[in-house]
Design goal:
The chain is of the alpha/beta class and 225 residues long. It has a single domain, classed as P-loop containing nucleotide triphosphate hydrolases (Rossmann fold, 3-Layer(aba) Sandwich). The protein contains eight helices and seven strands. 39% of the residues are buried. It binds guanosine-5'-triphosphate and magnesium ion. Magnesium ion binds next to α2.
Length: 225
C-alpha cells in the first residue's frame, strides 16, 4: 500500500467516526476553532464564555499535544471541559474524530442537553484542516503577527474555514502589516470567505463574532424542529 493510500484509509476511517460524532451532536451546535499556536483561540473562548454568561449550556473540548493549561483556563468559566492530550492517543499535531468521540462521551452529550460544544484544536495551520470531526462550523483565527502571506502558504486551512477571525487587531499600529493585502490574499484562496477583525482580549469587541455564533445556533435549533 502506498503512503497516499494509507493516508486515504486513515481519513476514511476518521470520516466514519466523525459521522458518529455528528449523530451524537444532532441537537447541539459544534464549532471547531483552529489556528497557529498562540493566535488567541483560548483567549477568544474565555471572552466568549464570559459574554455568553451562562445563557446557554456550553461544553468545551481542548486539544493540545500536552499540558492541561487551556482546560484550566476554561474551567474558570464552565465546568464541562475536557482536555485532550494528543500524545496520549499516539497523535500529535491535530485532533481527530476518534479523540472527539471519546471527549463527547466523557461530556455525556447523549444525556446532558448542550446548546454548544466548542472544540479548540491543536495550534497548527496544516493538519487540522484535513480532519473532519463532525462539527457544524470551522472557525479559523489568524493573528496579525503571523503576516500577510499565510493564506497563500496554508491554503487548505483557509479553504475549509466557514469564518475567518483576524485577531490581535489592537496591535496593528505596531506591526508592519497591511490588512488590505492580507484580505486580498484570503480572497485569492477563498473569495467568499467571511472575515472579521477582532481583538480577542477585549470582550466588548466580540459583538459581531457572537452575533454569528448565535445565528448559527438559531439555525441549528430551527433545523432540528
Ligand atoms: N494584543 C493581543 N494579544 C492577544 C490577543 N488575543 C490573544 N492574545 C495573547 O496571545 C497570547 C496567546 O493567546 P492564547 O489564547 O493562549 O492562544 P492560543 O491560540 O490558545 O494558543 P495555543 O492553544 O497554545 O495554540 C496570550 O498572551 C494572549 O493574551 C489579542 O487580541 N490582542
Ligand atoms: Mg489555547
Amino acid at each position: 500500500m502506498s503512503e497516499i493510500e494509507i493516508f486515504e484509509n486513515i481519513l476514511k476511517r476518521n470520516d466514519e467516526i466523525a459521522g458518529e460524532n455528528k449523530k451524537l451532536l444532532k441537537n447541539t451546535l459544534c464549532i471547531n476553532i483552529m489556528s497557529s499556536p498562540g493566535a488567541g483561540k483560548t483567549t477568544l473562548l474565555e471572552n466568549t464564555l464570559k459574554s455568553i454568561n451562562n445563557k446557554y449550556k456550553v461544553g468545551v473540548i481542548e486539544g493540545d499535544v500536552t499540558t492541561s493549561n487551556d482546560a484550566k483556563r476554561i474551567k474558570k468559566y464552565i465546568k464541562d471541559v475536557i482536555q485532550i492530550k494528543t500524545e496520549v492517543f499516539g497523535g500529535g499535531c491535530h485532533l481527530d474524530a476518534r479523540m472527539i468521540n471519546f471527549a463527547l462521551k466523557k461530556l455525556k452529550v447523549n444525556k446532558k442537553k448542550y446548546d454548544i460544544i466548542i472544540i479548540e484544536n491543536v495550534g497548527n495551520l496544516i493538519c487540522p484542516a484535513d480532519f473532519y470531526l463532525g462539527e457544524d462550523k470551522k472557525v479559523l483565527l489568524l493573528s496579525l503577527t503571523e503576516g500577510e502571506d499565510k493564506p497563500l502558504k496554508y491554503p487548505l486551512m483557509f479553504q475549509v474555514a466557514d469564518l475567518l477571525l483576524i485577531n490581535k487587531i489592537d496591535l496593528l499600529p505596531f506591526l508592519n502589516i497591511n490588512t488590505v493585502n492580507l484580505k486580498n490574499n484570503v480572497k485569492k484562496i477563498k473569495p467568499n470567505l467571511k472575515m472579521m477583525e477582532i481583538s480577542a482580549i477585549k470582550e466588548k469587541n466580540l459583538e459581531r463574532w457572537l452575533k454569528v455564533l448565535f445565528n448559527w445556533l438559531k439555525r441549528k435549533k430551527q433545523w432540528q424542529k
